[in-house]
Design goal:
Chain B: The chain crosses the membrane at residues 55-77, 98-115, 121-141, 153-173, 179-202. The complex is a heterodimer of chains A (10) and B (215). Chain A has 10 residues and is mostly helical. Chain A is built from 1 helix and no strands. Classes of the chains: A mainly alpha (10), B mainly alpha (215).
């Protein structure tokens, strides 16, 4: 999904 | 967010604060590799291209800004500040870091999550971060004894990615489809590069002696 596409870690 | 990742971020932040303390308190950057600092500034600039397009959280945005500003400020200070740059070990900091840049970018073109501008630069930043410490470790070996703040800087820098590995293990077991293979494998390589430094750091801490890396 779009959500996991984003890199949410620094 | 989990405790491992938060601890990792705090260690990363601590390493930067220790480095800033060393440079501003001692007005000296002896023992610090400018090449490693330049590579880290590139890592953050390449990784946080999504700073204004993808909002994750206030914490995420603030930390990204802190990392970008601090890493560029350190490079600027080591290059431009008349007092600090005098103590730069130019003749010792000779690692050809352009090879690391080229290799990381080439690998990012081949191995990435999606062949898009942002994803290629993200993978590039992950690979580059794994090897960015090499000029610094080579400089420490050449400069013999290592001052405390520099040793602590490198220690926290190495420890942060080790906590990220724990974070990836935790997420692997707690989230359904968690797969960050690029970051995981690169993070393992990155942490492994610190192995011998951690060993000599532990020895110096145990024997309460000055940290010294064998040439």
């Amino acid at each position: 999904t779009e959500e996991e596409e984003k890199h949410d870690e620094l | 967010m989990n405790i491992f990742r938060f601890a990792g971020d705090m260690m990363h932040l601590t390493s930067i604060l220790v480095l800033l303390l060393k440079i501003y308190a001692t007005k000296s950057c002896s023992g610090i590799s400018l090449k490693t600092q330049e590579l880290y500034a590139l890592v953050f600039l390449a990784r946080y291209l999504d700073l204004f397009t993808d909002f994750i959280s206030v914490y995420n945005t603030i930390m990204k800004l802190v990392f970008i500003v601090s890493s560029t400020a350190i490079v600027w200070c080591m290059k431009r500040d008349r007092v600090v740059r005098r103590s730069y070990d130019k003749q010792l900091d000779t690692f050809r870091h352009y090879f690391l840049l080229a290799a990381s970018f080439a690998l990012a073109l081949l191995v990435n999550e999606k062949f898009t501008f942002q994803e290629i630069f993200w993978a590039f930043s992950i690979y580059l971060e794994a090897v960015a410490i090499l000029p610094q470790l080579v400089l420490l070996q050449r400069s013999g004894n290592v001052d405390n703040l520099t040793g602590q800087y490198v220690f926290f820098l190495g420890a942060y990615r080790a906590f990220y590995i724990l974070n990836w293990i935790y997420r692997y077991f707690t989230e359904t489809h968690f797969s960050r293979w690029i970051a995981c494998i690169s993070g393992l390589v990155q942490t492994a590069l610190y192995a011998d430094f951690f060993y000599y750091y532990y020895i110096s801490w145990k024997n309460n002696t000055k940290l010294k890396l064998p040439a």
